[in-house]
């Protein structure tokens, strides 16, 4: 996704970085005892986002842009990034139109010991049952039930909601992404680890024939399965493989209300475990 020069622009946080003492910062009292440290203060995050916005504007010139925000964790990053892009564009007396679309990505736990009893289609439309998403990849092993009638397909699934990444991807989003055709597209994702999810999303977006696709990732984790050649085009911070929360990043829907990016403690994991 990115050339060598662009990859080096992320702020690299070393493996030994222990973060800041929590007592030096304000944070919600109800999370006391649930966090190890403040890893990246909110002010540092905002300053880095301004730099990313500058780089994006330098690349796209005066052309309009479609922004594809990956929810839920990416909504704050996307909002602040788009606002910074608009502000810098106005300061430079440039007219730039941005349109934002929202998608969600879900991974599901694969259980290799289960038995495939029913052949499922590779792509299954759910429009017939009145919901606005498409299952791109489905494995029967993650389903608690399956029923196919002449009118509808019913799928019942178990999501993986704890601190692990899985390989089965569901893309939930607008009915029609054909608006991406011929457009400059910026995908905004809060955190990238192995890159498998982003690779699947890029393949999906490419089917709509955009003019150009770029990816902005606030955090990139150094993980054993990661591929350095698949870094986002715009990188905020490169961090060790630690479980971080805050700035809309959650653990089972908690901690989104933290302004700072923090490391969750083992106590916090147990407290909010599903």
TrEMBL record:
Q: Which GO terms describe its biological process?
A: GMP salvage; guanine salvage; hypoxanthine metabolic process; IMP salvage
Which residue positions does the secretion signal occupy?
none
Classification via CDD domains: PRTases_typeI
Which domain of life does the protein's organism represent?
Answer: Eukaryota
GO CC terms of this entry:
cytosol
Coiled coil (UniProt feature): none
Please report the stretch or stretches of sequence annotated as the Phosphoribosyltransferase domain. 48-251
The terms under GO molecular function for this entry are:
hypoxanthine phosphoribosyltransferase activity; magnesium ion binding
- Sorted alphabetically, which PANTHER family does this protein's record hold? HYPOXANTHINE-GUANINE PHOSPHORIBOSYLTRANSFERASE (PTHR43340), PHOSPHORIBOSYLTRANSFERASE DOMAIN-CONTAINING PROTEIN 1 (PTHR43340:SF5)
Its protein name is Phosphoribosyltransferase domain-containing protein
């Amino acid at each position: 996704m990115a050339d060598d020069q662009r990859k080096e622009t992320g702020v690299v946080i070393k493996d030994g970085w222990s973060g800041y003492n929590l007592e030096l910062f304000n944070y919600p009292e109800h999370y006391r005892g649930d966090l190890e440290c403040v890893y990246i203060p909110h002010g540092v995050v905002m300053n880095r986002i301004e730099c990313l916005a500058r780089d994006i504007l330098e690349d796209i010139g005066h052309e309009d842009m479609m922004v594809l925000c990956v929810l839920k964790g990416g909504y704050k990053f996307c909002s602040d990034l788009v606002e910074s892009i608009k502000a810098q564009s106005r300061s430079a007396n440039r007219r730039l139109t941005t349109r934002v679309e929202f998608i969600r990505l879900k991974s599901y736990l694969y259980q290799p010991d289960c038995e495939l009893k029913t052949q499922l289609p590779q792509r299954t439309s759910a429009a017939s049952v009145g919901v606005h998403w498409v299952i791109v990849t489905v494995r029967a092993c993650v389903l608690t039930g399956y029923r196919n009638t002449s009118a509808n397909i019913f799928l019942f699934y178990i999501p993986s909601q704890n601190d692990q990444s899985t390989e089965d991807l569901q893309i939930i989003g607008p009915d029609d992404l054909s608006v991406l055709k011929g457009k400059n597209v910026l995908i905004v994702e809060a955190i990238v680890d192995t890159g498998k999810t982003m690779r699947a999303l890029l393949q999906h977006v490419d089917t709509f024939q955009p003019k150009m696709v770029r990816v902005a990732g606030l955090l990139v984790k150094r993980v054993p399965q990661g591929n350095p050649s698949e870094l986002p085009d715009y990188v905020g911070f490169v961090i060790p493989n630690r479980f971080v929360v805050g700035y809309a990043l959650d653990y089972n829907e908690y901690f989104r209300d933290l302004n700072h990016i923090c490391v969750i403690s083992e106590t916090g994991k147990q407290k909010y475990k599903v």
